[in-house]
């Protein structure tokens, strides 16, 4: 209770000490008493209830007496609603929680619904299967039920938790970090302490079991979980082992999701079809593409800045044979007038327009390295290294045209549908998501196509992402070419280097 109170107060105060938090508990038998029980003597109640083999705890919540015990999954959401894509009203928040439970029940093939005026989730409009705190009990003409009762078998809390997390992520459009659990004998974490715990997450496509380190960092008063380095272990289900795709935990991201969630617009350039070639060799060597290995910064680099500089670096490499490291920070600081949004992202053609107006782009050494925040533009006082005279669109939906552009021109900026959790958890192998969109309105994230190839007979695009080396295959993904998976060939662009 103290932990929940501390988290709530920190969120209300705007402190960065904690993040939005879900606490999932299977309580040992306990009765909690609310503020409406003033007529009872706490000592008398405590004695009576403890005599039944349960603990007794007085709380500052409303309501009467509530029992929690083994077999119940109790979830304590401690959230700042402003950080989620839900209406900030309590009514809409409660409805979102109810929908989460309805989806959870559906995953067990139990049909559930809501009843107007009676918060909670019901089976057959008669049996309550989940309470949402408001009016959790005291409804005279209704009964309660459970998944075990409805399915006529024992359903454990351990079986329910992964399905709840999956439903919550989908409903609240969020990515969860599973921090593990602490035993009864372990005290609450203290700043600077390190706890070794084990987290288990089951997914539709893989089962993941990882030893992790959960710790409180005293230097910035922020709790974090380290899932990477030598601690990561992915266990793939046997029936999927021939698929060649592995998945791992995703890193911490904004609750609104991985993608920028911007609407990509047609950039106004003339579409210049690139002549198709009958046969081209595999192009999978990173260095030959003129791109550096992804940054290992923990967290997200702005996709627009990474893709734009990466494309220009690659095209310049193909043209000159020299690899330069251009300043992503310059694009973040200086392309606002073209409609970009600094660290919050933007679009490649806007960045190209800025570079042409600014008469070039500077190197990291001249302008400055990535800061992680929007800075003050000072492009007029630094030397420009690379100049552009325009940019091309590769013919939309044409696999051969994109292949040719990659081989003869170098890396190409592409937009993809990055809204699916399977991409967040990707580790290795050829990635194919059957639910991925490939229409312009589906595309919400920019990446860098740097090559192409074939693995076990399946053709793929070699894609460099901006989510650091902790994600995917050292920051890269092999994106299937089948059916224009996730829209790789929908809006490809590359710049034209000026002769200076």
Brief descriptors of the model:
500 residues, BirA Bifunctional Protein, domain 2, Cathepsin B, Chain A, 11 helices
What does this entry look like structurally?
Keywords: Disulfide bond. Residues 16-213 form the BPL/LPL catalytic domain. One of its GO terms (molecular function) is lipoyl(octanoyl) transferase activity. This protein is an alpha+beta fold. Helices cover 23% and strands 22% of the residues. It is built from eleven helices and 22 strands. Helix 3 crosses helix 5 and helix 6 (303-320) crosses helix 7.
Number of helices: 11
Number of domains: 3
CATH architecture of the largest domain: Alpha-Beta Complex
CATH C-level of the largest domain: Alpha Beta
Mean of residue pLDDT values: 67
Largest sheet: 5 strands, mixed
**Which structural class is indicated by helix and strand composition?**
alpha+beta
CATH H-level superfamily of the largest domain: Cysteine proteinases
Adjacency order of strands in the biggest sheet: 16-19-20-21-18
Distance between the termini: 66 Å
Instruction: Give the proportion of residues in helices.
Output: 10-25%
Based on CA atoms alone, the radius of gyration comes out at 27 Å
- Output the CATH topology of the largest domain: Cathepsin B, Chain A
Quaternary status: single chain
% residues in beta strands: 15-25%
Any idea what the shape is?
elongated
| Number of DSSP strand runs | 22
- Contiguous runs where pLDDT drops below 50 for at least 5 residues: 179-304, 340-345
InterPro entries: aa-tRNA-synth_II/BPL/LPL, BPL_LPL_catalytic, Octanoyltransferase_CS, Papain-like_cys_pep_sf, Pept_asp_AS, Peptidase_C1A_C, Peptidase_C1A_papain-like
Organism: Medioppia subpectinata
Pfam families: LplA-B_cat, Peptidase_C1
Domain BPL/LPL catalytic: 16-213
